[in-house]
Amino acid sequence: MSVNKKRKETYLLLLLFVLVFLPNIFYFLHYTMLEFRMFLNNVVFLCLILLCWKIPKIGAGIGALLLLVFTLNNGLSIMSFLMYKEAFNVALAYNFLTTNKSEALEALLTFKTVIVLLTLYYFALGYLVYQVAKRQWKTKYLLLVAVALLIYPIGFKSYSFYKKDKELTGESFGWMAKYNLWTNTPLYNMASFYEANRFIKELALIKKQKMTYPAFDVEETDLETIVVVLGESVRKDVMGIYGAQQETTPLLEKRISNLLVYEEAVAPSSFTNTALTFMLSKSIPVEKKDFQLQQLNDNIIGLANSTNLWNTYWLSNQDEIGIYENLYSIITKDAQYRQHTKEKSYDEVVLPMLEQALGDSNQKRLIFIHLQGSHMKVSERYPEAFERFKIDDRPLVNAYFNSVLYTDYVLDQIIKKVENKKSVVLYLSDHGQTMKKDKYIHGFTKKGLEVPFVIWHSDAVSEQYKVTGRVNTPLSTTNLYAILSDLLGVKGLEKKNPNTELRALSPRFEIVRYDEVESD
């Protein structure tokens, strides 16, 4: 073999190893530590693919198929690091399983560059594997390396988790051991899907249990209509009412004398599914092994129904979930009146829905309105008339400010429809956003958890129940349940834990205090 040919093969082999270990490189750059199990599993998978190429006739086809599986598995890690600056985890898998088709397509179009890069990644790997496989690798050595390296993660590590799981759960091979077994295989990202799917199934079982409240009283609070507007992906610091230089909330600011403004509201999660669940139910973020999903049945919609006085509505400009139900959709199905938009629309589409609800014969109404807000694709969240901000050379940053300006308009229109009634309108976002280069994205950072939370009071509301001004004490939005319970007049039930420590659920399903979360 010539020196040049040997050198070329060496370069190809080195390039192959770089591409194979790309997830490890991202992991190291982000966490400044080597994920040893991921490294071993990638070596094992590479050996298996090279082994397949040694099989006559069908080997190349099997190798190409395994390479596709390998790319999809590692692609999840790569995409996660590129988009969310963290390893692929249970929360991301959960969102993947519970996302409707249109939202999933929208997400793919938003990150089409990443999709193209992953496609190129697959073909580059395929070419390099094909070139490297032509070398005279000895099959027995490849097999020996693959088996030897699997002994540590699948054998030793899985056994240690098996013993720990048995101590915690009392089961000989429970869900925790199965989850950890997946993490120790070349398809390590499947562990997150396994856990997310187990979570969904457990929720379905819990939902079959009917919540029965003990006897309680309902006090008259001089309110006829309570409207809860749930925003989407809104950072507090981009709102004029919270001090932003840009006038993104001019209409809300005109109503400041009727507003109660929470200056330091903190979301319990950086993802809609879990954030809204903790806000609407009696559940709060707690350690995973004590995560009481049963508390989802004790939710504010079910409680309002149990008063036999308040009627409940869920009006949404977000699609219903398909084959999988997500956390908060299980709660919203308790609403007596439910309406979702049939096609992609701007948020003002909820206004006729609200008019219809206000026009029925019910005397007391608890109305939830779920907006698209500033959800990606943010440039499609507002009409052309709200294309006003050109303060930045990054188009998506300008679009984000425009989306908040449009939400201010929609919120003002909602208030106008109830301002002559004995009513209050609460507005808060599910979570904030993290700034990454040229866009705002979901991220478990302080800005990803800091959210706007305001309560507007009609002049028709008795002064006894009209509270305005600014509250500087930090507050978790998990307290939405307790605040609404008081507005409904519910008395005599055990109070929800106020979560004064501002606990939040990380994408790894770990509990972190707000003051421990990284800044951005």
Written account of the structure:
This protein is 47% helix and 12% strand. The chain is elongated, with a radius of gyration of 26 Å. The strands form five sheets. It has an eight-stranded mixed β-sheet, sandwiched between helices. It has a three-stranded mixed β-sheet with strand order 11-4-14. The protein has helices at 3-20, 22-31, 36-52, 59-84, 90-98, 101-110, 112-133, 139-169, 175-183, 190-207, 250-253, 272-280, 300-306, 327-332, 350-358, 395-418, 446-449, 480-488; strands spanning 217-218, 225-231, 259-262, 265-266, 311-316, 337-340, 365-370, 423-429, 434-436, 439-441, 450-451, 453-457, 469-471, 475-476, 490-491, 503-505, 511-513. It has 520 residues and is of the alpha/beta class. The mean pLDDT is 82. Strand 9 and strand 10 (439-441) form a beta hairpin.
Map the helices and strands:
Elements: H1 3-20, H2 22-31, H3 36-52, H4 59-84, H5 90-98, H6 101-110, H7 112-133, H8 139-169, H9 175-183, H10 190-207, E1 217-218, E2 225-231, H11 250-253, E3 259-262, E4 265-266, H12 272-280, H13 300-306, E5 311-316, H14 327-332, E6 337-340, H15 350-358, E7 365-370, H16 395-418, E8 423-429, E9 434-436, E10 439-441, H17 446-449, E11 450-451, E12 453-457, E13 469-471, E14 475-476, H18 480-488, E15 490-491, E16 503-505, E17 511-513
Parallel strand pairs: 2-7, 2-8, 3-13, 4-14, 5-6, 5-7
Antiparallel strand pairs: 1-15, 3-12, 4-11, 8-12, 9-10, 16-17
